[in-house]
């Protein structure tokens, strides 16, 4: 099983001038989109290594990007405090949402792609409506005491990790929110594919697996370095392994159950900023400060 | 008076020409008047009808004299009035439809009837006239001998007469009992003739002698013409209605194929039908009793409506089906249901010799021979197996401790999950020397023994579970996630006592911990005495019970001891963490090696680990409770979970396709729009603002206090402080304006919305009235009829300027209204509150100098009347108002009287103000200067 993990460098996607801050697959995994400090978003074909299109509108660095379920649009956010809602084929900005009061760290779409949820340095999570023409947020959630670094969504929940050390789950259906205090600043939040666990990357160089239902800590994954950069973590498509990125440019695979490091390899010359795992296939995309996006296959 | 004119032309004039009054001389005119031909209209009572001789028409002494109807016209003054009104209230059913016919006299009716085309009575063989005609004819033969002597009422017995049709037919040579149409010889069978004879004989035998004439004649004719078709033996004779269906009911309406089948069957049963032609009940039918004109002799049962199906068709459907089935089963002749009309197929078709139609037949499923229709539970089987199986021998433990643990764990797992797990792990760990026991290698005996033990244990467990199927209330509650009930007496004790009790108990007793912790390292190496005490502490901790006084701790003070205990607890906790992680590794390895196939789901793995934990007693694997499931009681450990209510906004819920969990609940977090806050200032806020206005002068300070005093809101809901700030001063405005309102309707309770709306509309009206007043004041002399309120209002508008703006010199009217209506709080200067304060006490701030004079005289009165109606419409204020209302009731009389006075005074005031207004306008064109020149007396 371990030999099925993507470790072989398939393609290097070069094009960004400067650090690449995030890379994301589209919904079917045939394309990926990256953004970086050069204020440009690039659409790639990761299989062939082709740069398909680049999107220019942001005034400052672009920190995160999210693609709509039907792949026709995407949304990006960045240090210019705005959220841009893009049309993929034309490359035009459909709408600029009045974003946050400061830098926007992360953006995600709701499952039915009607709502953009973003988290930012202003200690808030904001929900924006794609259906109406309003640029104002539908709701501003200011339950955080520090910058919101990462978000993930389920059908009815918004899960947000913050530097204040808590994962907060806002259940829209139940009208409640629960906060799991992990005690360490949270850098990234990822859901397992069965939706029952949350993987939280903490700034004490530990990934923690939390049972969503009870809030119990199921496992901790250590070995990598993550103390100052915003990096990503995720689970593989089979949920069997945990993938983490390190500040020394390495990628780590842990066994989900026994938290042993199954594999690690040097992926980039400098810190890995973002990783994305293909939904169905063993394929990993990583982005780094060194300005490259690399595609990894078994 | 129709007469040609003098000029002798062909023109002929009929009637009396009306004469034009202008062209007539006085004499002629009088004459014409007298004659009634003057064109100039006379009043109706002066007109009267004249005949050609000029005489007044005389209607008759008893029918109106000279004036019938309304001055010789129809009806009344109001016109045609055929009937006086009669209330139909009591007799609604009697409402009649009038037709022109009702108003016709006999002559007219005759005329009308002559134009109509209808059936002559003697030809009307249908309906009522037929019976009537028959009766008339019958009465002509009253001399006939009657069977029943005496008078027989005609209504009961209607004699049969031949209808016109029958008469005609008979004239054409038709005879009773013969069919209509061309003759043919087909139906002259012997049986038919016999049947007919029998029937006719019976019928004639049963009939009365005087009526028997035609029927006997009929029978004779029938006998004479035996060769002729007896088709007049109608269908009903052959096809008797032998079912209970209603007339006209067709059971085959939607299933015509059954009709064919029925036909077919009837063809088969021809004999039966033939037998039926001998109608026994024909005897009972007496002629001339209840038979219509249409019916002839022997037609008693005929289907008069002729629309229904043949009675033979009316067979119950199920019966039909049965029959069909029978035929199907016999199936000697292949038939297709659609073709098989009668015996022959459709012309041009031949019946198939073989029926291709075959009903599909499905065999019932084969029940396996070993099928037992009773479910047996696997565990019971296991148990019986394990008990019936030969018990494996007691085997010694292998020397290798890890191997023992591995075997134990494996045995437990296999006992729990079944032998598939064993097979899997066998396959998986073929090469692994550690797992040789699975293949009967090292420790194989021990493994089988352990497995058997575990299995039997498990079986027992299951059995015991089954013996005790009912869960306790607490267990059920736990399963349902309820909070366990507090069983201790603690809740009864007050909180501070409880804390004290807890402290003393902690000092004296200790809770037994589940597992002893083995510490590898010594936390207090530098202090051996302390280390000893710590070890003692640990030992005690895991035995529990009374806290022993440490030997070494005697020299310590109480406080030091308590401090130390705390320290020990912390250290023990930390130590337990390290041990647990080391233990977890082992367990994790075991889990991973034996259960790798479950690693697809995290949850499964986690549960698996937990289940092992539950199973093992601590000494079995000596693995302490791990960090997988941290105790919630230890508040130090992470992660900590807290839950709070959070309100998603309705739109968000809508976008997430989720029902709003807070539907119908008050919107706590809803940020209010500016308009809302303007028109519907919440009561608490306005109250609050009034307090603040008295307390502080600056708007900024108001906000601060507001923020401080607002109850702590949920974090997520505390959204826009700016918005709230913006709202406050608007309420101040409201407070100001609602004072104005009181003047106008002091005794009326003002509703919140109404008050605010009125304030808004008044602001607009003020502007308008002011300008109007200006115009009128310039144009119209002092006693102004129209704008009674105008001067007062305009003065009010000026006052608002004063209070809101605080800069009377700069402010024009339009500006003021804008400011107030848009409610921009930023424009309010600091000092405005001082202006506000006196305004709430009564009318004084609005009073002008002239007014002041009056007011002094009636100060008491004014104060009294204006006081009770505050701007406040709050809930809090309502109570106050209620109490005030009581006061009002007590002295109502006094108030009424005072209100009269007040109204007088007001009128006077208005006049005065008007004069003043005018004079002011004359002095200066700008109204602002007038407002500035009349500051409220209490402001200064």
UniProtKB/TrEMBL annotation, chain A:
<dbReference type="GO" id="GO:0000398">
    <property type="term" value="P:mRNA splicing, via spliceosome"/>
</dbReference>
<comment type="similarity">
    <text>Belongs to the WD repeat MORG1 family.</text>
</comment>
<feature type="repeat" description="WD">
    <location>
        <begin position="265"/>
        <end position="298"/>
    </location>
</feature>
<dbReference type="GO" id="GO:0071013">
    <property type="term" value="C:catalytic step 2 spliceosome"/>
</dbReference>
<feature type="repeat" description="WD">
    <location>
        <begin position="13"/>
        <end position="54"/>
    </location>
</feature>
<dbReference type="InterPro" id="IPR051980">
    <property type="entry name" value="WD_repeat_MORG1"/>
</dbReference>
<dbReference type="Pfam" id="PF00400">
    <property type="entry name" value="WD40"/>
</dbReference>
<dbReference type="InterPro" id="IPR015943">
    <property type="entry name" value="WD40/YVTN_repeat-like_dom_sf"/>
</dbReference>
<dbReference type="InterPro" id="IPR036322">
    <property type="entry name" value="WD40_repeat_dom_sf"/>
</dbReference>
<feature type="repeat" description="WD">
    <location>
        <begin position="55"/>
        <end position="96"/>
    </location>
</feature>
<keyword id="KW-0963">Cytoplasm</keyword>
<dbReference type="GO" id="GO:0005737">
    <property type="term" value="C:cytoplasm"/>
</dbReference>
<dbReference type="InterPro" id="IPR001680">
    <property type="entry name" value="WD40_rpt"/>
</dbReference>
<protein>
    <submittedName>
        <fullName>Uncharacterized protein</fullName>
    </submittedName>
</protein>
<keyword id="KW-0677">Repeat</keyword>
<feature type="repeat" description="WD">
    <location>
        <begin position="97"/>
        <end position="129"/>
    </location>
</feature>
<keyword id="KW-0853">WD repeat</keyword>
């Amino acid at each position: 099983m371990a030999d099925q993990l993507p470790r072989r460098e398939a393609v290097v996607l070069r094009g960004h001038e400067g650090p690449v801050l995030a890379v994301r697959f589209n919904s079917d995994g045939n394309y990926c989109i990256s953004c970086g400090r050069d204020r440009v978003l690039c659409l790639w074909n990761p299989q062939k290594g082709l740069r398909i299109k680049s999107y220019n509108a942001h005034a400052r660095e672009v920190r995160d990007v999210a693609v709509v379920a039907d792949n026709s649009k995407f949304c990006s956010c960045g240090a210019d405090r705005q959220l841009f809602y893009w049309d993929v084929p034309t490359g035009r900005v459909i709408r600029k949402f009045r974003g946050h009061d400061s830098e926007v760290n992360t953006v995600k779409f709701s499952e039915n792609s009607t709502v953009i949820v973003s988290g930012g340095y202003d200690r808030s999570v904001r929900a924006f409506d794609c259906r109406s023409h309003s640029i104002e947020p539908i709701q501003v959630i200011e339950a955080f005491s520090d910058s919101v670094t990462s978000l993930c969504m389920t059908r009815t929940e918004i899960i947000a990790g913050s530097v204040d050390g808590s994962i907060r789950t806002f259940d829209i259906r139940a009208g409640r929110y629960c906060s799991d205090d992990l005690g360490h600043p949270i850098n990234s939040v990822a859901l397992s594919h069965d939706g029952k666990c949350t993987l939280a990357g903490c700034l004490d160089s530990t990934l923690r697996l939390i049972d969503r239902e009870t809030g119990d800590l199921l496992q901790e994954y250590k070995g990598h370095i993550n103390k100052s950069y915003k990096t990503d973590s995720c689970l593989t498509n089979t949920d069997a392994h945990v993938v983490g990125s390190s500040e020394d440019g390495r990628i780590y695979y842990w066994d989900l159950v026994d938290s042993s490091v199954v594999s690690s390899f040097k992926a980039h010359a400098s810190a890995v900023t973002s990783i994305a795992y293909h939904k169905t296939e063993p394929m990993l995309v990583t982005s780094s400060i060194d300005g490259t996006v690399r595609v990894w296959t078994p | 008076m129709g007469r040609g004119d003098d000029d002798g032309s062909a023109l002929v004039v009929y009637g009396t020409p009306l004469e034009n009054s202008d062209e007539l001389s006085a004499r002629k005119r009088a004459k014409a008047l007298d004659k009634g031909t003057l064109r100039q209209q006379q009043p109706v009572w002066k007109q009267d009808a004249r005949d050609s001789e000029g005489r007044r028409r005389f209607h008759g002494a008893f029918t109106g004299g000279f004036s019938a109807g309304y001055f010789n016209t129809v009806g009344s003054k109001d016109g045609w009035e055929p009937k006086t009104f009669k209330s139909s209230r009591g007799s609604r059913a009697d409402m009649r439809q009038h037709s022109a016919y009702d108003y016709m006299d006999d002559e007219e009716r005759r005329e009308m009837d002559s134009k109509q085309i209808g059936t002559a009575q003697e030809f009307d063989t249908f309906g009522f006239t037929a019976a009537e005609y028959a009766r008339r004819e019958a009465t002509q033969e009253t001399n006939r001998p009657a069977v029943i002597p005496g008078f027989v009422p005609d209504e009961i017995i209607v004699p049969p007469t031949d209808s016109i049709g029958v008469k005609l037919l008979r004239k054409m040579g038709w005879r009773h009992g013969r069919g209509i149409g061309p003759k043919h010889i087909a139906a002259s069978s012997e049986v038919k003739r016999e049947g007919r004879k029998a029937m006719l004989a019976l019928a004639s035998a049963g009939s009365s002698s005087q009526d028997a004439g035609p029927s006997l004649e009929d029978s004779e004719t029938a006998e004479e013409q035996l060769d002729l078709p007896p088709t007049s033996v109608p269908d009903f004779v052959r096809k008797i209605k032998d079912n209970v269906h209603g007339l006209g009911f067709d059971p085959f309406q939607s299933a015509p194929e059954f009709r064919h089948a029925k036909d077919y069957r009837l063809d088969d049963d021809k004999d039966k039908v033939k037998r039926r032609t001998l109608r026994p009940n024909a005897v009972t039918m007496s002629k001339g009793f209840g038979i219509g004109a249409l019916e002839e002799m022997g037609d008693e049962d005929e289907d008069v409506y002729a629309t229904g199906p043949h009675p033979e068709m009316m067979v119950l459907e199920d019966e039909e089906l049965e029959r069909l089935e029978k035929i199907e089963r016999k199936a000697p002749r292949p038939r297709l249901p659609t073709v098989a009309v009668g015996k022959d197929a459709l012309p041009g078709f031949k019946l198939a010799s073989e029926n291709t139609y075959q009903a599909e037949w499905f065999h019932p499923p084969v029940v396996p021979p070993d099928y037992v229709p009773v479910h047996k539970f696997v565990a019971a089987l296991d148990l019986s197996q394990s008990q019936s199986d030969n018990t494996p021998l007691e085997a010694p433990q292998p020397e290798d401790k890890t191997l023992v643990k591995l075997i134990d764990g494996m045995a437990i797992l296999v006992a729990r999950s079944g032998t598939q797990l064993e097979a899997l792990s066998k396959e998986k760990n073929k090469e692994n020397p550690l797992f040789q026991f699975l293949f009967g290698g090292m420790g194989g005996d021990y493994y089988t023994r352990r497995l058997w033990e575990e299995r039997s244990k498990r079986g027992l467990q299951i059995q015991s579970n089954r013996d005790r199927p009912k869960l306790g209330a607490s267990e059920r509650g736990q399963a349902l996630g309820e909070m366990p009930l507090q069983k201790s007496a603690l809740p009864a004790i007050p909180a501070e006592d409880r804390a004290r009790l807890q402290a003393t108990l902690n000092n004296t007793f200790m809770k037994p911990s589940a597992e002893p912790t083995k510490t590898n390292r010594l936390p207090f190496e530098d202090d051996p005495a302390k280390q000893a005490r710590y070890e003692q502490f640990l030992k005690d901790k895991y035995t529990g019970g009374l806290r022993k006084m440490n030997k070494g701790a005697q020299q310590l003070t109480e406080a030091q001891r308590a401090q130390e205990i705390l320290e020990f607890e912390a250290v023990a906790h930390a130590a337990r963490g390290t041990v647990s992680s080391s233990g977890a590794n082992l367990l994790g390895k075991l889990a991973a090696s034996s259960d790798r196939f479950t690693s697809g789901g995290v949850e499964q793995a986690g549960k698996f680990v937990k289940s092992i934990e539950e199973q093992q007693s601590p000494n079995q694997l000596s693995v302490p409770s791990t960090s997988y499931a941290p105790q919630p009681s230890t508040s130090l450990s992470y992660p900590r979970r807290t839950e709070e209510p959070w309100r998603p906004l309705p739109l968000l819920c809508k976008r997430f396709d989720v029902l709003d969990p807070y539907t119908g609940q008050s919107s706590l977090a809803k940020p209010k729009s500016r308009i809302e806050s303007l028109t519907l200032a919440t009561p608490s806020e306005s109250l609050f603002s009034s307090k603040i206005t008295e307390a502080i002068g600056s708007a900024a300070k108001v906000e601060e206090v507001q923020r401080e005093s607002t109850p702590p809101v949920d974090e997520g809901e505390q959204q826009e402080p700016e918005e709230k700030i913006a709202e406050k001063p608007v309420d101040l405005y409201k407070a100001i304006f609602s004072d104005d309102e009181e003047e106008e309707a002091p005794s009326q309770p003002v509703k919140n919305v109404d008050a605010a709306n009125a304030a808004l509309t008044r602001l607009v009206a003020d502007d308008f009235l002011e300008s109007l007043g200006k115009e009128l004041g310039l144009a119209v002399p002092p006693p102004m009829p129209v704008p009674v309120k105008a001067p007062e209002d305009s003065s009010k508008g000026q006052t608002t300027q004063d209070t809101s703006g605080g800069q009377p010199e700069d402010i024009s009217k339009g500006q003021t209204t804008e400011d107030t209506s848009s409610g921009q709080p930023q424009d309010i200067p600091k000092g405005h509150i001082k202006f506000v304060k006196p305004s709430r006490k009564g009318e004084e701030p609005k009073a002008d100098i002239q007014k002041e004079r009056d007011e002094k005289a009636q100060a008491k009165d004014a104060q009294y009347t204006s006081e009770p109606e505050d701007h406040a419409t709050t809930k809090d204020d309502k109570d106050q108002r209620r109490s005030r209302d009581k006061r009002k009731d007590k002295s109502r009389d006094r108030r009424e009287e005072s209100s009269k006075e007040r109204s007088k005074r007001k009128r006077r005031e208005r006049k005065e103000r008007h004069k003043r207004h005018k004079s002011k306008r004359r002095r200066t064109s700008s109204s602002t200067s007038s407002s500035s020149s009349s500051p409220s007396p209490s402001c200064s």
